[in-house]
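Researcher: Go.
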Amino acid sequence: MSFDTPLPPYNASDPHATFLNSSCLDFLLIELVPMAQRLADELSIPSEKMDEEERREAVFYRLEVLGYRVGQGLVERFSRDRQRFTDTLDVIKFLCKDLWTLVFRKQIDNLKTNHRGIYVLTDNTFRPFARMSTEAGGQAIQRAQPFLWFPCGIIRGALANMGINATVQAESSELPGATFQIKTINAKA
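Model: Structure:
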């Protein structure tokens, strides 16, 4: 499958064509966080009540692992017809332009690097945050944080499948913006 926009007419009878309604992804992302929170509560030991930090870590782990697998699958599928990437910056550019467009229907707004293995990706209108309401009292950013964990996993899984071991952290200082920090981990010889 190509990253180029398909030209009309769209042929739904083509057995190799794949179509996905973007609303399906939106609904999935909306429901992933509550599902992970319910699972964390249900799978905890009833006699030992989890504190808020343990619950948060359990939810983070579940969402990040799900995103990791999705990122691996996306890269496996959509980079197979491309030439092999020569350096890490090319991989990050692929992530910012092609993969982000595939998942969130827009490119990353800003990419910064220190050329020492740290990359900062900024999305000023992060799609999962676009329809979130901002409540009075400043809790909106705190409540939006778990919705960044699945995309962190997508980034980490995509990079891992392209041979780059990295850690990914995300934060939002103002909705609907999101900032992802990627730190590559050099393999020891």
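Model: The longest helix spans residues 52-78.
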